[in-house]
């Protein structure tokens, strides 16, 4: 539910990198649930590996919005692949934000975009994005622990399973056919 909510707000902000990673995460969560329900340890292991990448992505998003190092939240290239001038949806629509258009717009502003000023936000948009990523990290850590536990349970169960007529030589032997019903090889 949390990732679907995040996907919706990233779509509203036209942030293509988060949209793609959220989509891959949704697919991987579905495969992880399927692997758990069908006792497929490879799917669950794949889910656990993805969660490591997912945590890495969310740490990057936190560093991006908090402008750690040389990262800048005003860069179009990283989150939108330089395909649009959009930013986080929360920038304009955060709690308490007042959006006022600036007139006249500067000469460098594109004609199809509005030039605005944002003020009065109770919580700045970068902190909302950081909170989303932090929640995703917490859920991913819980999911990783659960995935490791499930893989352990599934592999232990596979090792202890012995079915009748298995691969062991001392196990159950079916009734032998009588000689008149047995197929005999033909020699020519």
Automatic annotation (TrEMBL):
Coiled coil: none
Location within or outside the cell: Cell membrane
Annotated Pfam families: NKAIN (PF05640)
Bilayer topology: Multi-pass membrane protein
Family annotation (InterPro entries): Na/K-Atpase_Interacting (IPR008516)
Keyword Cell membrane in annotation: yes
TM annotation in the entry: 16-35, 47-68, 133-151
Annotated keywords: Cell membrane, Membrane, Transmembrane, Transmembrane helix
Domain of life: Eukaryota
Family the entry assigns: Belongs to the NKAIN family.
Protein name: Sodium/potassium-transporting ATPase subunit beta-1-interacting protein
Phylogenetic classification of the source organism: Eukaryota, Metazoa, Chordata, Craniata, Vertebrata
Gene: Nkain2
């Amino acid at each position: 539910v949390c990732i679907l909510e995040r996907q919706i707000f990233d779509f509203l902000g036209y942030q293509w990198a988060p949209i793609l990673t959220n989509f891959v995460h949704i697919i991987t969560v579905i495969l992880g649930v399927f692997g758990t329900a069908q006792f497929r340890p490879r799917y669950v292991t794949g889910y656990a590996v993805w969660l490591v990448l997912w945590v890495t992505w969310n740490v990057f998003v936190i560093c991006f919005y908090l402008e750690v190092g040389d990262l800048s939240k005003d860069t179009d290239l990283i989150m939108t692949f330089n395909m649009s001038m959009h930013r986080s949806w929360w920038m304009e629509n955060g709690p308490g934000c007042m959006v006022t258009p600036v007139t006249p717009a500067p000469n460098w502003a594109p004609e199809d975009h509005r030039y605005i000023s944002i003020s009065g936000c109770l919580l700045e948009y970068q902190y909302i994005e950081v909170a989303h990523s932090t929640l995703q990290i917490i859920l991913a850590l819980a999911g990783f622990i659960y995935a490791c536990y499930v893989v352990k349970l599934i592999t232990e169960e596979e090792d202890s399973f012995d079915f009748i007529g298995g691969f062991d030589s001392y196990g159950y032997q079916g009734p032998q056919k009588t000689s008149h019903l047995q197929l005999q090889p033909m020699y020519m």
